[in-house]
Design goal:
heterodimer, A: 2 domains, ten-stranded mixed sheet, 10 helices, 18% strand, B: alpha+beta, six-stranded mixed barrel, 14 strands, elongated
Chain lengths: 362, 382
């Protein structure tokens, strides 16, 4: 009870003694928290968007040696190994590429497709019909989707529900769209591609995140041991984005340092305000730990109040600024990091600063 | 007297060294943040400013290639081809070479750091303009003659053609290294899609060299009359065409979205600066008002006390500016002109802003000094 009484009494003094300075320091801490939440959330969501874009549109490409084309079983075995290996990220999208020449000498690009999520389909502008459902892609159904070259397509005359013949097998066209390449591509399901034993010249794999070096090495080993020489090419790293990311990290780091200084200012203010009281506490024999504890509780309470206000303001402003917000656990995590750093800052400097101020005072 | 004020100002800097360090760290970070945001915004607007100076009123971009066009009296069609090159007999960095034909070089002039544009060149040798960074890297200068090994893909992508050419360096692109290219397209065409930034790029101004054509052309109307309208309709059937005004409009729309974000950032940094410096200065006031009251009672008037305060502030700002300048050079020296543009203007603007904000934040203390009795100040701090 006594401790609580002293704590509330101390906290009351914050609002009554040298009010203007206290309000200014509190406003500073509030703005610093708000700025940190803004910059962190804004840059973090941009980073995630960019990563998502890279992983959606830039796959890992596996070029297969055309002198040693693997069988469908071999490809299936390697893919199964990769997809079931727990240390690798999930495969979001997979395409197997083949070029088939029909009896009239016309080349068709055949792509066997597997997708984990529907949102990976927006490679195409679907113009007619529909795209595969996720269950379609897991079956060996004789259905195909044609992605046309926007300027010059050899499938201009084919309409939805028409039948096309590839490698003496009939496929019903379920839809047509514009792709992101200059070629005409015929998409069939991954199962159908393997069951019909098309010659695979290239594989494109989109993982849920960029692979680490040892993960990439594992994939290289799997392909080389099962298929023979094959070349696995990583999606390019955008250096411009990397430089932008560096700048963003430095901006957030600068705001964090400003937040630390704001917290130190609160600490300085509290020691100045409570100086006379501390001298009395020392004379009455209060231990160093207890003094430190009282001060720390004051600072943490103040930080908690200001942090909560800044979160409320940020959540409301985010709607108007059109930026995403963090969830409760992320806010809590940031708060715990602040508390930890405050404890370290106050703990490291408390004895030294108090002694210096008291010496100066006496 | 001035000497005395400087002495007191310097002496005050030595007292409570940690508080001074905190203020300096704040100032350094704030100058740094101001420069970064200004630099990022200047980089965003760079291409648009560059295009505005070109005065491309009757220019159109055609996304698709077309074989021939027989209206040379009404329009001129500019084409860009590309090849890759290396300095002959040297295993050095591969140059991305863009070959501009006469129509492009006549209608579009890129900013150069030194030298002349193709139109002003009268020599017999093949003129080449290098990117600033490539020229610096290999110590190449204006009027140097270089022998290049060029390579390009033919229509059959598996067949590579290669040949050697001798070129005369007539200029270097400015630091930003932007050049016109049509290699990448977006549905929403902005100038950034047509102008790219490369470290190792060279421009050759000649239609005598044939290389790999890029999918796209620039059409320049000679006159704005009925014939040209008919012609544009005709072109529209062959390809999707976008006028330079439309591209500028699209670019401005994209920029205005970014500007909104930048304004919020500037506002936040400004608020951060004001709040941080004011709170620090107010904390300092606890110690300083007592000292200034003593100076006043010893015969120094308030205006001199204010001068001491301003002098101390200027010293702190200048010191922080030097540290921030070093920090910017060390951390972002490589990114300058690639993702941001930081130069003398940015430094000047940031230092003026920080000085104004610092003075506003010190205003509180100055007003307090001018309004209060020194005895009250001393008693308040006892």
């Amino acid at each position: 009870m006594k401790i609580l009484y002293i704590f509330f009494n101390d906290f009351k003094i914050l609002f009554s003694n040298r009010k203007k300075i206290f309000y200014m320091i509190s406003i500073n801490l509030f703005i610093v928290f708000f700025a940190f939440l803004y910059f962190f959330t804004f840059y973090y969501s941009n980073y995630l968007k960019n990563e998502d874009f890279v992983h959606r549109y830039k796959p890992y490409q596996v070029f297969i040696n055309q002198n040693n084309i693997p069988t469908s079983e071999t490809i299936n075995t390697v893919i199964n190994k990769i997809s079931t290996y727990k240390q690798l990220p999930q495969i979001k999208k997979l395409t197997l590429h083949s070029i088939e020449t029909n009896s009239e000498g016309v080349e068709n690009n055949i792509i066997g497709l597997f997708m984990q999520e529907r949102n990976f389909e927006n490679y195409f502008v679907i113009e007619k019909g529909k795209f595969f459902s996720l269950s379609n892609l897991k079956e060996d159904k004789e259905i195909a989707f044609i992605s046309e070259n926007p300027f010059e397509s050899k499938y201009n005359n084919i309409i939805v529900d028409d039948t096309i013949i590839i490698n003496s097998k009939r496929y019903t066209v379920i839809g047509k769209g514009l792709g992101d390449t200059d070629d005409d591509d015929i998409y069939i399901s991954y199962k159908s591609f393997l069951n019909n034993s098309y010659d695979c010249s290239k594989l494109n794999i989109n993982f849920e995140r960029r692979l680490k070096e040892h993960e990439l090495e594992y994939i290289r080993k799997q392909f080389n041991s099962s298929i023979g020489f094959s070349n696995v090419v990583e999606p390019p790293i955008n250096n411009n984005n990397l430089q932008k990311l560096t700048i963003q990290i430095f901006v957030v780091a600068s705001v964090i340092i400003l937040a630390i200084i704001a917290i130190i200012n609160i600490f300085r203010y509290l020691t100045i305000i409570n100086l006379d009281k501390f001298v009395i506490y020392i004379l009455c024999g209060m231990s160093h730990i207890k003094r430190f504890f009282y001060l720390l509780i004051d600072i943490i309470s103040l930080i908690f109040i200001l942090y909560t206000i800044s979160i409320i303001c940020f959540e409301n402003c985010a709607k108007y600024l059109d930026i995403s917000t963090l969830n409760f656990s992320q806010y809590l995590c940031i708060f715990l990091v602040i508390i930890l750093s405050v404890t370290v800052i106050v703990g490291l400097n408390f004895k030294k600063i108090i002694n210096n101020i008291i010496t100066e005072r006496l | 007297m001035i000497g005395r004020i400087i002495y007191i100002g310097l002496n005050k800097l030595k007292r409570d060294i940690w508080a001074r360090i905190f203020i300096c760290v704040q100032l350094v970070l704030i100058i740094y943040l101001f420069n970064l945001t200004i630099g990022m915004w200047r980089h965003e607007t760079y291409i648009l400013n560059m295009v505005n100076t070109m005065n491309l009123k009757n220019a159109y971009y055609c996304s698709n290639d077309f074989e021939s066009f027989d209206s040379t009296n009404t329009v001129s069609i500019g084409e860009i081809t590309q090849a890759f090159g290396k300095l002959k007999n040297q295993n050095k960095t591969t140059l991305k070479i863009k070959v501009y034909d006469e129509e492009i070089t006549k209608n579009i002039t890129l900013p150069l750091s030194k030298g002349i544009w193709f139109e002003e060149y009268n020599g017999k040798e093949l003129p080449i303009i290098l990117s600033n960074s490539y020229a610096k890297k290999y110590n190449l200068d204006i009027n140097d003659t270089i022998e290049l090994e060029l390579q390009y893909s033919t229509e059959d992508i598996n067949v590579q053609e290669s040949f050697d050419v001798e070129c005369k360096v007539i200029g270097t692109l400015n630091k930003a290294n932007y050049h016109l290219t049509f290699s990448s397209m977006g549905n929403y065409l902005i100038w950034k899609n047509l102008f790219k930034q490369d470290e190792s790029v060279a421009l050759i101004g000649s239609s005598s060299i044939s290389a790999e054509p890029l999918s796209g052309k620039m059409v320049f109307l000679k006159n704005l009359d009925d014939d040209s309208t008919v012609l544009l309709d005709k072109l529209g059937k062959l390809s999707s065409i976008t006028s330079s005004q439309q591209i500028t409009k699209n670019s401005k729309e994209v920029m205005s979205d970014k500007l909104k974000t930048q304004i919020i950032m500037w506002f936040l940094i400004l608020a951060l600066t004001l709040a941080s410096l004011t709170s620090n200065n107010m904390l300092e006031k606890i110690y300083e008002e007592k000292e200034f009251a003593a100076y006043y009672m010893l015969g120094l008037d308030w205006s001199k006390c204010v001068l001491i305060e301003i002098f101390r502030g200027v010293i702190q700002i200048l010191f922080s500016f030097v540290i921030a300048f070093i920090l910017l050079k060390l951390l972002h020296g490589d990114s300058n002109y690639k993702t941001l543009i930081i130069d003398g203007y940015s430094y000047l603007l940031s230092i003026i802003m920080v000085f104004c904000v610092y003075m506003i934040s010190s205003l509180w203390m100055i007003i307090e000094l001018l309004r209060t009795n020194p005895i009250v100040l001393i008693r308040r701090n006892e």
